[in-house]
Write a structure and sequence with these properties.
CATH architecture of the largest domain: 2-Layer Sandwich
Helix content: 25-40%
Number of domains: 3
Strand content: 15-25%
Mean pLDDT: 88
Structural class: alpha+beta
CATH topology of the largest domain: Heat Shock Protein 90
Largest sheet: 6 strands, mixed
Length: about 500
């Protein structure tokens, strides 16, 4: 690193990927908590030899370069501890990840901690995964709760989650109409397939939904079999942590809260197969379908329709269905929002690039792929990006929400940012227009997250602090173009488009 790069990091303040430590004479114990937190979250940089005055509100004056007394000793001590399995369960670093940066007569030690691959998380300290595993958020390093550590351990299993055996649950717990509807789709797609001649149990066993123990002859459903085709009551008995929810907020009139909703109400068997086949037609209904012929048959399956199906499929196959959470799909006039429990197994950048797929629920993924849902070899998300780019719609926004233990994908079907710039450009500053554009992408952004994104996008010499963003948000609310729904932590922003044209 160069001094200029360090200065740029410090201008933006200590954040989710930056931590500073005074550490003049030795490597402080708290460095290892940050190491664990960065490795388990998004990676980051630790700077040793920098003091932060937490009482200083002006970011440009908050940090002081104090330097370390003996950089060689600091680096040697760091490496000794990093390679001590009693302190750290895994060393992720290469030689070039720990470097001494001269700062005039002083030296700063920069430690680049990468995000750990999902196959080796959790990264923990003091030989205790349940008490020594940390995560990172904007406020600092925090102990991971037990359910978060268990999630990382499950993710390390290359075979995925949904092959888990559900003892004492058998074919009696399968909703036969759901399974038969699936088999009808399967046989239409593969009329000559050998699976078509199998009985229901054997068919389900071939797809990884049923297990027979070769040793003792015991048999039971797998997690995939129960959740995909089970009756509602057995599913709720075993997975009372999970809710399925679809809500349509398009075309609302007056104080109407929603125009359509599908959640458990006793009128349907709430398994995953029913959920996806009931709500997909509702989602796709209003997407434009140009008239096109494929031979003598009409082909009206556009890239955008395929993209929405892919998004729905991804929400299911990548969900951690063992967490407390909601698998939720929302439809608005101008967007679709898919939310699933769990965090991303791969970095966001890698998912956008495609080429690799690491589903948590690999048996469910196979079941859906066999009836035409889901792309192969990690091409699904690039398919979504391509379909949206073709229409010049806003780029799909995939975000993690670690505080809620969920992932959200927003597919906007119109360029809200462009509309905002056109309608209120004369009244608002460039920064405020950027804020509205970012909120259009992700309505759940906090003021702190917005300040970081705005700083990066505007490339200003001095970063835009959180207070400035809060003043901008207050002005947008006062002008009536922005509103807040829900609380500070679980709420979201709403752009009032009807106000933008007044």
């Amino acid at each position: 690193m160069t001094t200029e790069e360090i200065e740029q990091l410090l201008r933006k303040g200590e954040r989710i990927t930056l931590e500073v430590k005074r550490a003049e004479k030795e490597v402080s114990r708290s460095v290892w908590e940050t190491y664990s937190a960065f490795a388990n979250t998004n990676g980051g940089i630790i700077l040793l030899g920098v003091h932060e005055n937490l009482n200083e509100k002006d970011i440009s004056r908050r940090f002081t370069i104090t330097g370390v007394e003996n950089a060689d000793k600091i680096r040697k001590d760091f490496w000794n501890i990093a390679n001590n399995s009693e302190k750290v369960n895994v060393n992720l670093l290469r030689d070039e990840d720990v470097e001494a940066v001269e700062w005039g007569s002083k030296v700063v030690v920069a430690i680049h901690v990468p995000r750990a691959d999902y196959t080796i998380r959790p990264v923990y300290i003091n030989n205790n995964p349940l008490r020594g595993t940390y995560k990172r958020n904007h406020e600092g390093d925090y102990h991971c709760a037990e359910h978060e550590v268990r999630m990382m351990m499950r993710d390390a299993n290359e075979a995925g989650n949904d092959g888990m055996l559900i003892e004492y649950f058998t074919m009696d717990d399968i909703d036969l109409p759901s399974l038969e509807a699936y088999r009808n789709r399967f046989s239409s797609r593969y009329p000559q397939h050998v699976f078509n001649s199998l009985d229901h149990k054997s068919f389900l066993r071939e797809l990884g939904g049923y297990h027979v123990d070769r040793k003792d002859g015991s048999e039971c459903l797998t997690m995939a079999g129960l959740l995909m085709f089970g009756k509602g009551l057995p599913i709720r008995e075993r997975f009372d942590n999970l809710r399925l929810d679809y809500i349509d907020k398009s075309g609302l009139i007056g104080d109407q809260r929603y125009s359509d909703r599908l959640t458990y109400d006793g009128t349907w068997e709430n398994n995953l197969f029913n959920f996806i086949t009931i709500i997909l037609p509702k989602l796709l209904r209003n997407l434009p379908r140009p008239f096109k012929m494929d031979g003598v048959e009409r082909d009206d399956d556009t890239p955008q329709h395929k993209a929405v199906r892919e998004a729905m499929t991804n929400a299911i196959i990548h969900a951690d269905l063992m967490l407390n959470g909601i698998l939720k799909v929302e439809k608005y006039d101008n967007k679709f929002v898919f939310t699933n429990p769990g965090l991303l197994k791969l970095p966001v950048e890698q998912i956008y690039d495609g080429g690799e797929s690491k589903a948590r629920n690999q048996h469910i993924q196979t079941m859906l792929r066999m009836i035409g849902f889901g792309e192969n070899l990690g091409s699904g998300f690039p398919l979504i990006l391509s379909a949206w780019n073709e229409k010049h719609w806003l780029k799909p926004e995939l975000t993690e929400q670690p505080e809620l233990m969920q992932v959200r994908l927003i597919l906007t079907v119109e360029d809200v940012g462009k509309d905002v710039g056109k309608d209120v450009g004369k009244e608002l500053s460039n920064r405020q227009l950027i804020i509205l554009e970012m909120i259009a992408y992700n309505p759940t952004l906090s003021a702190k997250a917005i300040s970081e994104k705005v700083s990066e996008k505007m490339s200003e010499k001095d970063s835009v602090d959180e207070r400035t963003i809060e003043r901008d948000l207050a002005k947008l609310k006062k002008l009536g173009v922005l509103a807040r729904e829900g609380g500070r932590k679980e709420g979201h922003w709403v752009i009032l488009k009807d106000k933008l044209t007044k």
